[in-house]
Amino acid sequence: MADFPIEVVRGKFPALSLTDKGRRRVYLDNPAGTQVPQAVADAVSRCLLTTNANLGGFFETTVAAQKVGDEAHAAMADFLGAASVEEIIIGANMTTLTYHMSRTLGRTMKPGDEIILTRMDHEGNVSPWLQLAEDLGLVVRFLPFDERSWQVEENALKALLSERTRLVALNYASNLTGSINRVKALTAIARQAGALVYVDAVQFAPHGLIDVQELGCDFLVCSAYKFFGPHMGILWGRRDVIDTLKPYKCRCSSNGLPERFELGTPQIELMAGLTAAVDYFADLGAAAGEGGSRRQRIAKAFEVSIAYENALARQLIEGLSDIAGLTIRGITNPERFGERVPTVSFTVEGIAPETIVRQMNAENNFLWSGHNYAWEIVHQLGIPPEQGVVRIGIAHYNTAAEIGETLESVHRVIAMLRQQRS
User: Fold this and answer.
1) pTM of the entire structure?
2) So which residues are the signal peptide here (predicted)?
């Protein structure tokens, strides 16, 4: 952890120096959205001020705007390890893209076909498929996660697959438990059965290197605002799969890839910010000593940030484990920290999560309570969805001092609430 350039990193994020009435901010709301480097904000502003035009013309600003879009697709191809920029589809957000792709894939399905959804996924990778199934008469089979490993197990998936299975939707990492699924192994099983695989990597993307070609899946979706970028979503689709699909689109819009999947005028200024977010990772990798391609520098950035984040997660989990009546909902074994991202959720016996979070928010510790759209998880665990959990989410710009302050706050707030009840 000592080798990670935390002060240099923090210096790139203006929001980290903000105070409220002299009180520092501790951003531990990162699973819902991270802060952005100055370079991202600058790129968005520069695009709006100097290349603000629609696409398809021959004058200077429209040509420049097209270049911004092209650069964003190339940046995300590097970020995800895609074989081609034509496989990168950029849109409003993960949920919107998933609804759009689910309807497109629905054109290839018929009543009685089956889709498999997990009990571990964010609702953005559940509701689109449930509603598609309702519209088309598809059969939905739910795949639970193992409450000992906190992961989706391969044998459980095998038990649900059939010759009618057309699609398996699963997540890379949970936004509540933090658990990382063995996506490559699960994908191989599903594809051997003839099913397409749609992966939600929103929670994994800020914390680990994604290689879509190695994973073997057919689709993978993530959100830039979870990895220090602007509010937009990115969907990767395997070229040989998406090239056969007929999306819902305007009759006169392009039939090329990826344009035929990108509805309406793109958010060009946000695409500029997206490229800057990817380049932030590349710059971090360069600072850590990698001088190769952008992809190689991104990989190095994750190598150093994972080690740093795991140390913070260990500090947080060990500190929470000292509190009687507190249950961490996820992996707590330090030997398995490589199988989780640094998102830690917990419940406390007899105390509503919102009560804890409201008090901590008042102290400028930014974190969340509730189900956090992990609707299936809270139901499988028997947690009242109207209460949910307390969720603390670490990003690599957080510090050990912030985790220490947060732990002190958690201990103090729980003790105070228990005293008030007695």
Assistant:
1) 0.97
2) none
